[in-house]
Write a structure and sequence with these properties.
This protein has helices at about 10-30, 40-50, 50-55, 55-70, 70-75, 75-100, 105-130, 140-145, 150-180, 185-190, 200-210. With about 210 residues, the protein is an all-alpha fold. It has one domain (about 10-200): Orthogonal Bundle (Arp2/3 complex 21 kDa subunit ARPC3). Helix 1 (about 10-30) runs antiparallel to helix 2, helix 1 (about 10-30) crosses helix 4 and helix 7 (about 105-130) crosses helix 9 (about 150-180). The longest helix has about 30 residues, at about 150-180. The protein is globular, with a radius of gyration of 17 Å.
Length: about 210
């Protein structure tokens, strides 16, 4: 079996995706948006190069933001890594089954499949490490719900799943649009050996057929 090699183009793609995460996160924070926008690059990479490579951008952006602007980003980097992994898994599975048309009317389902595992990981980290108190404005609501039979972890999950789901839906739509408009020659350079049998490769073939 031929071993896949990571090329310089793919390293540049991972760095660009991490930068996109940082820029999106800062924009959402500055405009006080109800979504985070810090996983667009992660989801794009996961959908494009597969689940394992999809974990890299969030690790990089988590470190960058953690040591520069928001220390919480460093602790929650595993959440983005899970998101990137799930984006690669789910995107590939659905594209193989449904072809290029799987995005039409199925984006919300895809966003749910990507959001739930990341929210579970985020809830555990938030409860175990921070006691439910973070830089998020929803921390007050979490503390109120934690006094109910739900408990801390379940309260965090209930509060976060709505915003996480909306954020993943927006990010999935943005990633799908990027995959659609990028020149094929550039995608071929980025893809390299990782693209053979990938979701994006399958999508490209299906788009040609359609």
């Amino acid at each position: 079996m031929k071993k896949k090699k990571i090329t310089s183009y793919q390293l540049c793609l991972a760095a660009m995706a991490a930068g996109l995460n940082v820029a999106g996160g800062q924009l959402a924070l500055m405009l006080r948006l109800p979504v985070y926008l810090d996983s667009i690059g992660t989801i794009f990479t996961g959908a494009f190069l597969g689940p394992w490579f999809g974990m890299v951008p969030s690790l990089l952006s988590g470190i960058i933001m953690g040591v520069t602007t928001d220390i919480y980003s460093l602790y929650f980097a595993p959440v983005g890594m899970v998101t990137g992994f799930m984006a690669g898994v789910v995107w590939r599975k659905m594209s193989l089954e449904k072809g290029a048309s799987f995005l039409k009317g199925r984006l919300w389902l895809l966003a749910l499949a990507v959001a739930v595992p990341g929210t579970l990981v985020s809830s555990v980290i938030c409860a175990a490490v921070f006691g439910g108190i973070t830089s998020s404005g929803s921390a007050v609501l979490v503390q109120l719900l934690a006094r109910t039979p739900l408990g801390m972890t379940a309260s965090i999950f209930v509060v976060q799943i709505v915003t996480d789901y909306l954020d993943r839906a927006v990010s999935m739509a943005a990633a799908a649009y990027m995959l659609k408009i990028l020149p094929f020659a550039l995608k071929e350079k980025w893809r390299g050996d990782w693209g053979h049998g990938s979701a994006e490769g399958t999508l490209q073939q299906n788009y040609r057929k359609e």
